[in-house]
Amino acid sequence: MRASTSSAAGRPRSDLNATVFAATLRSVHELGYAGATMDRIAVAAGVAKTTLYRRWPSKGALIIDCLIDAFGRIPFEGVDRDEVLSSGIRWLADKIGEPGVGAALAGVFSDAVNDPALRAILASRLQAPYRLALQAELGEPPHRIRLLMDVVTGTLIHRMGMTGEPMADADVAALIEMVLRTFR
Amino acid sequence: MRASTSSAAGRPRSDLNATVFAATLRSVHELGYAGATMDRIAVAAGVAKTTLYRRWPSKGALIIDCLIDAFGRIPFEGVDRDEVLSSGIRWLADKIGEPGVGAALAGVFSDAVNDPALRAILASRLQAPYRLALQAELGEPPHRIRLLMDVVTGTLIHRMGMTGEPMADADVAALIEMVLRTFR
DNA sequence: TGATTACGCTACCGGTAGTAGCGTAATCGG
DNA sequence: CCGATTACGCTACTACCGGTAGCGTAATCA
Description:
Chain A has 184 residues and is mainly α. The first copy, chain A, is built from nine helices and no strands.
């Protein structure tokens, strides 16, 4: 018996998720979210556009999968709540500062504002895991976690969107200070 | 001598800014930011699409002017900093909760993320006046005001974008509480 | 009345997300 | 080795949107 994830018959999918994700972030970094068209991403990945649509139902879904891959899991570090919170916020700020990640997040977020289907994917696949992990780690009620995520993510994205640059370290420190006063 | 704003010759512009702004917010409210196309806004306003483009250079510019009109000036209320801050945050939350305003703001914000020209308009025409007013009212250094606006606006938009609904009063109160702990 | 400017209308361009269909390549079980 | 099956590349296509060009007409002023 073969591994259950591999179907028995037919040509297997070539292993190009990593290639596509890298090409996606690179395209977004160089051309912006709107400029990173599906055609260009396909060319950058050395893949046919139709192949992208065989694997992801829409551009938004591709970007979200790309972001899930880019973010990974939160590395909870530290012993007390202060350290966990501040390291988590710094981790998110750093990730958003990586080339393409912040712009991709802001772009797909804004697409999701008026696309309920995409919003559902974004909320369930990208945000929910972190919400649950934070809830388990901090032991706060759900609405507190929601507010925490709105404040941290919203602030970082807003800065990125208004300036085009990720938030500077000094301001991240001020944000941490502010959050700690409420959630410590 | 005539009023300096009225040029001497030619057919005068008909007074339809208010009509267009109302039609814009209505369209965004009913169809979302992406669904509110320039064609539809024109039809909703009873105006030709070319007339819109004679007055606004782009859809984003129209939305921004519409938002400037919708927001107006901050009504600073209260005697001490606590009252000024909390009433200001509540005012912004209420405005964002008005039909179409939140979606329009989120939509144009996301357009601006990857359109530097639009971002410049957004920053200078919509955000700067409030930044200066807050600076004068609170007497805080510029980077503190920037952080304050990122936190408040970012949080409200993020909630709106992730849920499709404006932030509930209880959470607005919690946001105010949090901001006051840092900026009081 | 003539010059000037704004408006409505139709038609158009360039570009983007997403789809259809075909030939071909890669893998399986027999 | 062979047929079935599935994935891939490619070309062509649709539908839609932001934005523009050009023309006839309406409104205003000198």
